[in-house]
Every structure is written in C-alpha cells, then in structure tokens.
Amino acid sequence: MLRWATARARRFGTATGNVKPLDGVKILDLTRVLAGPFATMILGDLGAEIIKVERPGAGDDTRAWGPPFVGTESAYFLSVNRNKKSIAVNLKNPCGARVIKDLASVCDVLIENYVPGKLAEMGLGYRHIQDVAPHIVYCSITGYGQMGPMSQRGGYDSVVCAVSGLMHITGPQDGDPVRPGVAMTDLATGLYSHGAIMAGLLQREKTGKGLHIDCNLLSSQVACLTHIAANYLNGRKEAKRWGTAHESIVPYQAFKTKDGYLVVGTGNDRQFSVVCKILSLPVLSQDPRFKTNKLRVQNRKELIDILCARFLDKTTQNWLELFEGSGVPYGPINSIQQAFSEPQVIHNDLILEMNHPTAGNITVPVFAVPTSAMKKGSLSWLSADLHQVKRTLLRGSWHSPAVRFSDFKVSNPKPPPLIGQHTVAILKNLLGYSESYINELLAAGIVDQHAHH
User: Looking at the chain, which terminus has fewer C-beta neighbours within 10 angstroms, N or C?
Assistant: First the structure.
C-alpha cells in the first residue's frame, strides 16, 4: 500500500466521533457552472477538502448568472459551491500550470470539465498530471465524451437535453417539447461523477494506483432514459410526450381541482378501487372498460374525462383531506414557496444557513437552487411566510444533505468562497511556497488573492 494510504489507515482506523467518510481527502476542482460544482459540493459535504480553481477576475461563469443576486453574489453560484476554498490561477500561463501540477501532487482527486484536449494543451491533461501524481483520481466531465464526432462541442444542459431525447418526451401531450424546470442533465451528470469518484477512491485503495474517469452529459442522460429507452430498444416503440400523465399506468397524472392541481398515481387495481371510492364513483372500478390497468390504458380518454370532471368539484385541500391515509400516492402541485412550507420538507431539514463574508447570512436548500437569502432586501420576492418557515427549520436542528447517515452528521457548512479568497493560504500552507514567490505570482497576475481575507 502506498504511503498516503497507510497514513490514512493509521489516522482513521480507530477514529471515533463525527468522522466523515472523506475527511482527509483533497479534491482539486477545475470545474465551472453546474455538473462539476454540484459533484464537488456533495463530496465537500462528505468531508473532502475542495480547492476550487477559478479564473482571476471573472471566476466561475455562474458568478455572473443573475439576477437574483445576494449583494454582489449570484444566487445560482451560491447554490452549488459551499464547503469550498477558492484559488484564482491563470492556467494559460506556464507558471500557473505549474501551480496546478503542484496542487495535484498533494491532492487525491482532480476533477475538470474542459473540452477534451484543452487541458492537455496547457500541460494539464491526465497523462501530464499522472506523471507528477500517479495516485490521482482524475475525473473529466464533458458534453459528449473524450472521443467521437461531437466530442469537441461545448456541453450545455439544454442542448444535451434535446440531443439525448429527454426534451422530446417532456411537455404537454399535444404541445411543443420543453426543457425541464431545472438542469436535470447537468445534475444527473454531477451525481454520476460524484459516485464515480467515490468508486475511483475505493479502487485506488485496492490497487494503489490512480485512474482516469470519463463522465459526460450525453451518456448520463441517455442512461437516465431507463424504461423509455428499453421500450424503444426492445419493442421499437417510439416515445412521445404525455404531459403529467404516464404512458403505461392509468390514472397516473395531475388533475385540475377547483383551485389548483392534484397528482394521483394508481400502481395497481386495488389502489384504483380506493380512488374510485374517494371520488364517490365506486362503479368505475367494476366497469368492464376499467377493471385492469391494461384496460384503463386502452380506454384512457373515457376514464380520464370522467375523473377530470369529478376532481373539479372540490378544492385541492378538500381532496388532500379525503386522500389522507388512503394508501394511494397523491400530492399537490406546489409552487416553490409551497414546497418549502410542506411539513415533510420542514421535518427533513432541507435548508442550510451560512454566514457569507460579503453577502451576510444566506440560506440555500440542500442540493438544489437557492430560494432565499437572509440579507435584508437582497431578494425582494421572498415572502414573510418563507422567512417564518426558515426560522422554524433552523430552530434547534442540525443541517444535513439530502441523504442521511447514522454514524456522522454533515453539519456546519462553510459558505461559498469569494474569487481567490484562499489563494495565498493554499499556496503557503498546502504547497509551502515562500512569501516572496507568492508575491511574485501575485505581481505577475498568475494568481490572484481576493482583498477580503
């Protein structure tokens, strides 16, 4: 076993207390926008030290993606960059590339999302890094993969959403294709990358060697087509848009109520019978046209017309009360404000509060898009009701990621960094650079340190 592995075993072999699985793991993060930062945020929540490399001056592209802004920080950037340190380095300068190599030599993981070949031109491709850091788990995130006819295209969520077929199956049944409300292709790729990096670290424990991981948006999204893909590959059945409905299960969709919408899903005949009783339409469950799911799919229009008319008779709240305890899956279509007011969302502690060095107190949901900021006046659309929900969430609770663990807590998150906030500290403490050399790098514009220490 390599020296670093032996040291980690000595350090954590008999550890007790709130030890996180990635404590001691250092990750060099050369990603921007969403897929990569989402992956490294999760890894940071699990204890890894994330060193985020940014362009001097501009930083991550999403720092400019607004409004809304919280002070001068974009809410978008704040949503996926907690638990990270920022170092501003000009990679195009050979001295800047040398800094990255030095960092890679003391890190466990390098993750990047450049167009294939771009980092290699700077001397920072996998083979270059492998020479100075043979232990490195090097994860590349691209739009389409390292090779192939589309490999040199930039990878954008909405474009890959279209190319992969996801947009083709998303939207109203008789309407235009639409993009999902959040960047699901980016997020899926971030989750795949996070899992692949964890697997890479486990593999390194077994072999003592690093490896290269190739993740891309197109492959991630095609893999996530699951049964839709299987329908085509095995039955040559082309998919189409169904709105909120389901191709193979009826009823399984949203129904308009007197004042909103209710989604109801019936996965079997027993549940359909229960729905009929709740709707005071018990004869429907015995109707020869609707007795089995196969028949209900065949006679979808007739059944849905009957159910739609019935659901319009009551408010969403009336129906929620009638469905409570029925064993049938159901729920309202919530606005974002309503979602964060849901008792189960409150119970699950899905909001994190952090004190940002310039924006003040900020709140972000776990693994999602930010909904509020505590700095007065920063987000004018934030309602007083949501402030009350936030206070309820924060009172007497520890904050966690979307996944819970029995033996450790993911708590005390660090706020997203300013551009180059930790440059000098990283160069000095992690790499052991002298103060005079750091000043030379700063003076030459190869690295940059944020004025706010």
Answer: C
Structure tokens at 342: 């849901």
What is residue 428's DSSP assignment?
I
pTM: 0.84
Nearest alpha carbon to residue 215 among 430, 452, 31, 397:
31
- Examine residue 67 and say whether the peptide bond preceding it is cis (omega within 30 degrees of 0): yes
CA distance 31 to 161: 20
**SS3 of 87, please?**
strand
Q: How far is CA 75 from CA 29, 47, 67, 371, 372, in A?
A: 20, 24, 8, 8, 8
What's the rounded Cα separation, in Å, for the pair 417 and 432?
Answer: 22
> Which range is least confidently modeled, 41-45, 68-72, 198-202, 270-274?
68-72
What whole-number distance in Å separates Cα of residue 203 and Cα of residue 213? 12
Q: Is 378 helix (H, G, I), strand (E, B) or coil?
A: coil
Is residue 23 flagged as an active site residue?
Answer: no
Three-state secondary structure call for residue 423: helix
Q: Which of 29, 60, 157, 186 is catalytic?
A: 186
Position 368 pLDDT exceeds 60? no
